[in-house]
Inverse folding.
């Protein structure tokens, strides 16, 4: 796909609609229908998990689900609410409510558009595998823990606090467990794990949710109370009457206003400060999740996405989601894979799936209200199980280098016990320092000549007073101490000093300063200093660094070692 446009947008739809036929539309329609059946209960469950009524997740699936595929850079990407956001959004809802979610989502959208406009989509390739595996597994643990309340019917009103506090709160409420609710949750979870094996042509999620709902109705008929969407949530109708469940209405767009006290009134300076950091975290996670999902889709289909268009689209999608009171959205790996596996051919499949969800809300809301909370919690636990990638986690622990294992465990532990931002942030810092240490180990120093040492074939028989100082490996802030650890021991009788940096692939400003410092300490009237460098960029940077300094007169550059050796040596 082309990435040379001033503002990359809608590159996937333009590419894939060439030669679009009725047969292609039928394939997109079938795939969209299947994905919508999976996305419907999951969208509600994720909204409930962050502390909001289920319709806000549906509004996200509708708004972002329609817009992002049409404007994005991936043919297959399906966007909507995802489990990864729960650990970020739940604290925002707890502190700021729906208003906080709306404005942090809008700010995140603006940040994402900025990332796409700056063409930073490829930066996702620099996130190490142990970081993504660690924080994803950590999110899975937190999500499963949050789901236990409704899964077992514990009746906890607010499951707040740190992870240990949540576990303690759950443990103290175990005596309040409702057997009927737990039975519904367990049956739903078992069917989620085995549903596709029972009825192959129906998504396992639909089989599980249907059976779970019927079982809840049976228990209710027998006198056992099982919480449902209708019994847990309510909304205000136009006539002011409070109605149970979710509203059977399409999401309505509300534009920001200057009216104080309004949900969409522009935030004050204090609110802005408190929401910017969560917005930045949402934007980074949305970018990470979306581009990972698009990459997975590419590997499944053999295509290539435009990462910058995808960032712009998910940014616009998040703004649209916020304007209809939805929660933040991103690319959904499981739904994207389901779309591909069920025959999707263009981005229209992803947009149509959102249209199906809109139809369900308008026509089936009274029936959706019967869905039990335990079944939705079971769906979240199943989602946590799928996203944990526990096999990859264990395999990384067993076969990865020690440094990668450290990064994995740091990301996992901090994500669980603090939050995802800490997990990813510290994990990236650890990965960077460990990488620097690994690169430092690859940097080698050889000192040859009359000072002793084992000379290479091309530098044998160096005459008295000649020293060859060879550096192999990158010269940057992490390797400076090792690279220049020995030159200060140069004896006074050395008259011919050769710095061989032919095996230095790159050099940063710290390296340039270190080389200049080295040359300054070695430069004397009677001493000749020769630099052997065959990398034009490195040589040009050194020349510029020493240009105009008095040491410049003592420095001679060569591209081959033979040119730097004393004349009496070259004759041999």
């Amino acid at each position: 796909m082309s990435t040379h446009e001033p503002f990359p947008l809608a590159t996937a739809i333009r590419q894939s609609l060439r030669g679009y036929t009725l047969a292609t539309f039928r394939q997109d329609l079938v795939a969209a229908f299947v994905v919508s059946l999976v996305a419907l209960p999951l969208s509600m469950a994720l909204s409930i998990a962050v502390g909001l009524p289920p319709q806000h997740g549906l509004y996200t699936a509708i708004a972002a689900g329609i817009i992002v595929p049409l404007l994005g850079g991936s043919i297959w990407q399906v966007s909507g609410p995802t489990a990864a956001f729960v650990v970020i959004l739940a604290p925002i809802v707890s502190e700021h409510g729906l208003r906080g979610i709306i404005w942090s989502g809008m700010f995140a959208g603006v940040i994402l558009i900025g990332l796409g406009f700056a063409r930073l989509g490829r930066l996702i390739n620099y996130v190490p595998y142990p970081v993504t595996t660690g924080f994803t597994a950590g999110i899975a643990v937190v999500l499963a823990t949050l789901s236990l309340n409704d899964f077992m019917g514990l009746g906890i009103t607010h499951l707040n606090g740190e992870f240990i506090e949540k576990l303690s709160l759950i443990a103290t409420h175990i005596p309040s467990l409702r057997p009927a609710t737990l039975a519904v949750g367990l049956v739903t979870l078992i069917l989620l794990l085995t549903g596709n094996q029972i009825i192959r042509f129906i998504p396992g999620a639909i089989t599980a949710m249907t059976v779970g709902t019927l079982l809840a109705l049976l228990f209710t008929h027998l006198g056992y109370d099982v919480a449902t969407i209708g019994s847990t949530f309510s909304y205000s109708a136009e006539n002011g009457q409070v109605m149970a469940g979710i509203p059977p209405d399409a999401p309505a767009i509300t534009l920001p206003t200057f009216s104080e006290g309004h949900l969409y009134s522009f935030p004050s300076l204090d609110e802005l400060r408190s929401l910017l950091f969560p917005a930045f975290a949402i934007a980074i996670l949305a970018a990470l999740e979306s581009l990972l999902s698009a990459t997975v889709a590419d590997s499944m289909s053999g295509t290539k996405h435009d990462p910058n268009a995808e960032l712009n689209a998910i940014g616009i999608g998040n703004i649209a989601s916020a304007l209809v009171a939805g929660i933040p959205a991103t690319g959904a790996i499981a739904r994207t894979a389901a779309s591909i596996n069920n025959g999707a051919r263009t981005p229209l499949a992803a947009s149509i799936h959102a249209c199906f969800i809109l139809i369900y809300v308008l026509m089936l809301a009274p029936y959706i209200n019967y869905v039990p909370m335990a079944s939705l919690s079971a769906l979240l636990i199943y989602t946590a199980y799928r996203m944990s990638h526990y096999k990859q986690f264990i395999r990384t622990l067993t076969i990865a280098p020690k440094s990668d294992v450290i990064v994995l465990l740091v990301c996992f532990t901090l994500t669980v016990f603090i939050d995802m931002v800490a997990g990813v942030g510290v994990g990236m810092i650890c990965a960077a320092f460990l990488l620097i240490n690994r690169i430092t180990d690859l940097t080698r120093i050889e000192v040859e000549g009359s000072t002793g040492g084992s000379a290479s074939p091309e530098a044998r028989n160096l005459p008295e007073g000649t020293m060859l100082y060879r550096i192999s490996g990158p010269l940057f802030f992490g390797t400076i101490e090792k690279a220049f650890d020995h030159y200060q021991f140069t004896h006074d009788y050395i008259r011919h000093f050769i710095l061989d940096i032919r095996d230095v692939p790159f050099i940063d400003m710290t390296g340039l300063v270190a080389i200049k410092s080295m040359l300054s300490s070695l430069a004397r009237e009677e001493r000749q200093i020769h630099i052997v460098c065959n990398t034009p960029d490195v040589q040009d940077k050194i020349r510029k660094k020493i240009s105009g300094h008095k040491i410049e007169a003592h420095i001679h550059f060569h591209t081959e070692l033979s040119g730097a050796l004393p004349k009496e040596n070259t004759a041999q």
